[in-house]
Every structure is written in structure tokens, then in C-alpha cells.
Specification:
Elements lengths: L2 H18 L10 H15 L15 H14 L3 H27 L2 H12 L15 H23 L7 H14 L5 H16 L9 H19 L14 H20 L6 H4 L3 H7 L2 H22 L2 H19 L12 H22 L12 H25 L2 H13 L3 E4 L2 E4 L2
Helix pairs in contact: 1-4, 2-3, 2-17, 3-4, 4-5, 4-6, 5-15, 6-7, 7-9, 8-9, 8-14, 10-13, 10-14, 13-14, 14-15
Length: 426
């Protein structure tokens, strides 16, 4: 790795720690946190339980294995898990920088995209600040690595099957199959890439490398369903086909709207200052206006944007597509799902700010005005992160969390409840 990239990686890791260091003392509080602890305890006696997929578990053996390794290091000390999340988030920000630079060949836009991602613009940090958010961080890292190597192979090596770049892409794609079920979203992003980047070339839009990945994904799906009895997390209620289509399309727009206007009914609003509560009074009207803006910008970007901007607009919609249909409607707008989708969002903001600034570069100080947009999002993200941190600290000492701890102590004889803390019995 070039020295410049090593320095950039170090900066992103440092910024990630500075931005999210406040969350290290949050502790375990989410139900998925304790489910992960229970599964790690289960894997100590039965390593093959990493392949559990029956509810409440999901088929993600790689994530369960990583959790088990972390449990071996940190046991019930949540601080170690948070440090791991924070540095993995910093790595993901560096990978965003590499991905954007690979496609756009513009280091300024790539750096700003990585900076916005490290400040969790568009996703607002929930995945980093919850121990169980590890699954979001891992699948994003694997997705970004898969795409970086795939795009390298397609752009610089004519999409050869027998190349180191494609082998690495295949390796990380296979690893992604062992985490959250997003393999077909990755393939959808590859189709978008082929359309926008090969459209005006004599090369076929779908080459042998894509066919290999598609076959791997299909085989993996068959194995998961037949051998491990995996079932996708379909909607829990049947609203009927017309309502299902309506709400799915509505969710497709609502997710990008949440990237821009993340305020919703919650502790963040009820405990925030009068300015936030005043803005929330007009939340519905604001969301409608933002939705119209998102739709308009998407159409405008597809018509007039360059191929990289078109690709990242498509990325944003493709990555939220599964969450608009699955886990519907009980979990239909979980902001954690925006972590991977926000890659496209931060690139669009960065490109818009940098390109507008260059257009008026002769205007002295006015050329910095477009940069106020990313600065505004960073400030808003910081505000939300601070509010979330306060909320999570309160929840970590709540009655529900105490019940989770007691349940683990009752279920596993090797665990004892020492006061309010869980400990392994020697």
C-alpha cells in the first residue's frame, strides 16, 4: 500500500475514534447485544452453532465467529467491542475513499466522501454505537472490498477471470454471503456499474466475472435454504398486494429522506431543545418537500450527471431495496439499514460540493459556499450522535437491560451476576 494511503487510513482511524470515543462506555443494552452474547456462550461448547439460522438467529456464521472471538478477548466488557466497532468504521471510511477514487479518479471528492462517511453523514452512527451493529460494519467492509477489487479488474484489466483482482473480489464476495443476505444487492450494484461504465463501449454489459459471482450467489442461496433451513426475513403481516407495493415504494423514498432529515418521534425529539421540537412540528411537510427533492434530483442526476454520479444514485436505491420489502412492516424504517446505503449519499454530496466550488473558483471566498452543505451535515450528525449516546447510556441501566442480564445468568451456568455485572465463573 502506498505511503499516502497508509497516512489517509491512519487519519480516518483517528477521526473515527475522536468522533465515536464517547460511546465506549455505553455498555450492552440492545436486545441483539445480549442475543449475540448468548450465541457466543453457545459457540464455546458447540462451534458449529455458528451456522444457526432458526429464529431468533440469522444465517451469518462469519459475524457469529467474529463475535465469539471478541467474546474470548473481552467477555462481558463492552468497551472492547466498541473500540473494535470504531476502528472497523474507520477502515470502512478509508474503503469508501478508495472506492470513489477508483471510479471517479478525483482525490478531492474521494477524500470528502470518506470524511463524510467517517462522520456518519446519512446514517448518523447508530451501527457504530451499538455492540450488535458489528453486523452492519462487517457486511459494509466486505461489500466495499468486493466492489473495489471487482471494479479494478473491470476497469484496468478488461474483466479477466484469471486475475488477482477478480480472485480477491470473489473471496470477499464469498465472505459476504456468510454475513447478512445482501449478495443480490451487490450483484445489482454490479449490473448498474456495467450499464453506466460499459454502455458506450463495445464490451458486453454482463461478462464472465459477473456470471461466476451470480452462480456463486445462487448456489449459496440453495445451500442456505436446503442445508441450513435459512428463510429470508419476509414481512410479518400480509397487507395484501396493492398495499404491499404501495408501502414498499413509499419505503424506497422514505429511506433517502431519512438520510437528509433523520428526526422522528423518539427520545431525541422529546428531550431535545425547543428549536428541534419546533422543527419537528412541521416534520410531515418537510419530509414531503424532501421526498420531492430526492425524486427530482435522482431524475436530474440520471439525465445530466456523469456515469459515476449515476452509479452512486443507483447504489443508494439498490442498497435500501431489500429493506423496503423484508421485515415489513414491523422494521420498515430502521436507520441502521442506512449505514451501507449512505456510501452513495456521501459521494453525491461530496461531488456536488466540490464541483460547484470549482465552477465558481474565481469568486475568491464565495467558492467555499458550496462546502457549507457537507459541513452542515457533519454538524447535524454530531448533534445526533451526542443525543444517541445519552439515550443509550440511560437504556444500558434500564429495567429491560437488567432482565437481559438476569436471563443470561439463568440460562448459562458458567455465568454469574455479580451485582449488575455479568462475569464468567472460573
Amino acid at each position: 500500500m502506498p505511503l499516502r494511503n497508509i497516512l489517509i487510513l491512519a487519519v480516518f482511524l483517528g477521526l473515527s475514534y475522536l468522533f465515536f470515543g464517547l460511546s465506549i462506555n455505553n455498555g450492552f443494552w440492545h436486545g441483539d447485544d445480549f442475543l449475540s452474547l448468548e450465541h457466543s456462550l453457545k459457540m464455546r461448547g458447540d462451534p458449529l452453532s455458528a451456522f444457526d439460522s432458526a429464529p431468533p438467529y440469522k444465517f451469518q456464521p462469519l459475524v457469529y465467529t467474529i463475535n465469539c472471538v471478541l467474546f474470548g478477548w473481552f467477555e462481558f466488557d463492552a468497551r472492547g467491542y466498541f473500540v473494535f466497532n470504531i476502528f472497523l468504521h474507520g477502515l470502512n471510511s478509508f474503503l469508501v475513499y478508495l472506492l470513489v477514487h477508483t471510479l471517479l479518479k478525483d482525490r478531492t471528492v474521494a477524500l470528502l466522501s470518506g470524511l463524510l462517511f467517517v462522520f456518519t453523514v446519512g446514517s448518523y452512527g447508530k451501527s457504530v454505537m451499538i455492540v450488535s451493529g458489528l453486523e452492519d460494519l462487517v457486511i459494509t467492509a466486505l461489500t466495499l472490498l468486493t466492489m473495489i477489487f471487482y471494479f479494478k479488474n473491470e476497469l484496468d484489466h478488461e474483466g479477466r477471470l484469471l486475475s488477482v483482482w477478480f480472485f480477491l473480489s470473489l473471496l470477499f464476495f464469498a465472505a459476504s454471503i456468510l454475513t447478512r443476505s445482501t449478495s443480490f444487492s451487490i450483484l445489482g450494484a454490479f449490473l448498474a456499474f456495467s450499464f453506466f461504465f460499459h454502455r458506450y463501449k463495445e464490451r458486453r454489459s454482463v461478462g464472465p466475472t459477473f456470471i461466476v459471482l451470480l452462480c456463486l450467489a445462487v448456489v449459496a442461496l440453495i445451500v442456505k435454504t436446503q442445508v441450513f433451513h435459512y428463510k429470508p426475513p419476509f414481512y410479518t403481516e400480509d397487507p395484501g398486494i396493492p398495499r404491499f407495493i404501495f408501502y414498499a415504494l413509499k419505503n424506497m423514498i422514505n429511506y433517502p429522506v431519512r438520510m437528509i432529515f433523520p428526526v422522528h418521534t423518539s427520545y431525541l425529539v422529546s428531550e431535545a431543545g425547543p428549536a428541534v421540537r419546533f422543527i419537528y412540528r412541521f416534520a410531515t411537510e418537510i419530509r414531503v418537500l424532501i421526498a420531492l427533492t430526492v425524486i427530482s434530483y435522482s431524475i436530474f442526476g440520471f439525465i445530466f450527471g456523469n456515469r459515476t454520479i449515476r452509479f452512486f444514485i443507483a447504489w443508494t436505491y439498490i442498497m435500501v431495496l431489500p429493506f423496503a420489502f423484508f421485515q415489513f412492516p414491523s422494521d420498515w424504517l430502521n436507520i441502521r439499514h442506512l449505514y451501507i446505503a449512505s456510501v452513495g449519499f456521501v459521494m453525491i454530496i461530496s461531488a456536488g460540493a466540490v464541483y460547484c466550488s470549482r465552477l465558481i473558483s474565481h469568486q475568491l471566498w464565495r467558492r467555499f459556499v458550496p462546502l457549507l452543505v457537507p459541513v452542515f451535515f457533519i454538524i447535524m450528525s454530531r448533534f445526533i450522535v451526542i443525543q444517541l449516546d445519552r439515550s443509550y447510556e440511560i437504556k444500558a441501566s434500564g429495567e429491560q437491560t437488567v432482565e437481559y442480564r438476569q436471563e443470561i445468568a439463568r440460562e448459562f451456568p458458567e455465568v454469574m451476576l455479580d451485582g449488575e455485572e455479568l462475569k464468567l465463573v472460573d
